[in-house]
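>> Question from a student workshop board

For tomorrow's exercise we were told to take the sequence and the ligand below, predict the bound structure, and bring the output to class. My setup keeps failing. Could a helper post the expected result so I can at least see what it should look like? The ligand is zinc ion.
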Amino acid sequence: MHAPVPTAPEAPCRVGVVVEAPQHSGLWGALDYLHPQTLPAGALVRVPLGRRVVTGVVWDPVASQGDVPPESLKAVLETFEALPPLPEAWRKLVAFAAAYYQRSLGEMALMVLPPELRQLDQVQLARRLKRLDKAVAAELAAAGKAAPDDPAHDTADGAPPSPPQPLPELSAQQAEALARLAASPPQTSLLWGSTGSGKTEVYLREAQRVLDAGRQVLMMVPEINLTPQLEARVAARFAGRRIVSLHSGLTPAQRLRNWLMALRGQADVVLGTRLSVFTPLPCPGLIVVDEEHDPSYKQQDGARYSARDLAVYRGRLEGVPVLLGSATPSLETWFNALPASEGGTGRYLRLAMPERIGGGVMPKVRLLDMSRAPKPGRGESAPPLSAPLLAAITERVERGEQSLVLLNRRGYAPVLQCGDCGWQSGCPHCSAWRVFHKVDRTLRCHHCGFTERVPRACPDCGNQDIQPVGRGTERLEEQLAEALPGARVGRIDADVTKHKGSLETQLASVHAGDVDVLVGTQMVAKGHDFRRITLVAAVNPDAALFASDFRAAERQFALLLQAAGRAGRDADVAGHSEMWVQTWHPLHPLYQALRDYDYEAFATRQLQERQSAGLPPYASLALLRAEAKTQDAATDFLRAAAESVGHIAGGVTLYPAVPTPVQRVADIERAQMMLESPQRPALQRLLTEAQPIWLALAQQHRRSGLVRWAVDVDPLSI
Ligand code: ADP
Ligand code: ZN
Ligand code: ZN
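>> Workshop helper replied:
Here is what the output should look like for this input. Compare the format with yours to find the bug.
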């Protein structure tokens, strides 16, 4: 159906094809190949590359006459006629992302395609498409006969029953938000609404409008495995529509199928994690980024892109509205949603929904001053929960209500120690402790994964009595079970979710009321609609106040507020819901703003600090990262890199190279250098010009132990 237009056979065309080439190969653009006919831009092809045959994307249908003579060019081996070419907007988005995040075009383009697609040849793909079309046709035929048991809906195991079908009456603030959206041209909007204010309902209404107009919706969530409820809600609302999900938890075949359905316009709604921002859509009508402040939108290795920022770019590119939703927007987004009269850029429309649906109120915040708590006796360690907090939880247990206890550290204890000789359970490969996991009696490094069984005795002096120091979620769970006899204590963290299905099981038992006290990491603070939680406690949240990372406070505020939002979601319990914070610094402005639920005050203060320190959103940052066999080799490279661009660094400040916070991981030393500029274009220009220089420099430094280097644009943590 997309048959290329034939041209004279005696003059083969020269087409530019992007293929996956490693960043450091120095190949940034397309490679020329020959083909008897022209091929449309965006078409998928198989081409020879070295001794391999690889999948590539036609970038220049008529490649410029490069310096390679046609005799030495290779021919395109296969084309995929059954597949529509990737849309122009997709190519533009990929090209922008590659340039902005300093990666090669080929790496970016191929990285965002479903991995399985790159394995298939023409015949195999045609077979898949046929099967897919058959399934879609069968589904259409079956529609209306029975309740749709749509295989395209990835069923959300462990999800609570779907919300009531009849559309609720909109709240006044929802109605206003929707009216303002309807009245404004397509642009980026910030839906700034408390948890439980009905943001999702606003997304769904907007989605409905767009679907009715025959367009597609892209809805992004930070972690799809943790939000089965959204999937269930979307599926329940748009029963007649085809909803597909795209995230790394799918099998390669599922992911390819869902992606193909999106590209061919067979999917109406795409629900996905950050990688879904690159989903090719023939007729997009809306992009939603839920919990836009969430750090998971930033890819943390390889091409370190921000899906949130790319969504905003994509919206502009395609003339499609973008809805960013959050109770605690990132300061970048907040700055863009602040009118110029209030010191912001005024680029985004700001829609505020401060009230919770149904008159629900946020839990009352109680800052528990730990400096007043009784000190533990000699040789005793302080109990995890202070007496009044324990009493408050006990009260909940007796009333049949649930409590959520937040501790952002998994494992049993962060380190084991020998009381005699001082041995500690360090990782031999990293500059970090190995965490004691009691469940399977292992010491595990959370950086490199190195795992061993816990030694019976101290490896240095043979002392049999080695002790856990500090506390993680496992230990807290154990201690709470001891302190609350009869209470059912559960735990949710990354260790629980490692076993397939166990997160769903655990969530289901919380929803069913089989858990009285739930211990968890930040994972439980996100998105879950727990109905019977009336107490949320943050056990040890102070570390973030003094972290060197300038975003630590912002992240902590968002986490605590989000956690608070887990309590009192039902109006009948909202009245006596509480958020407890055990802190040594109750007067800290972060906690004061939390107590008043005053995000605005918090943001204003943070923005002032950022402005005076010359930090984002008032400046743009990039990190040049280096990994080497020795710390010297890493810093030497960074120093040389800074010197090599000194003459073109106008308007950009290059800071001294420093070891990263965890400087050795898996026997590799890591260092980084920060680049900062008040003008984003100046930073971009420098990075682009620096790439070839640093590439050559890195070649030289390889001999002295440099292993890897990369640029991280708009780094999330520094
Ligand atoms: P948010 O996404 O802001 O946390 P939700 O959209 O999940 O909030 O809404 C919270 C709860 O209120 C959900 O159970 C939802 O079904 C319900 N809800 C949303 N809008 C309304 C409304 N206008 N009337 C009644 N209930 C509503
Ligand atoms: Zn010892
Ligand atoms: Zn390690």
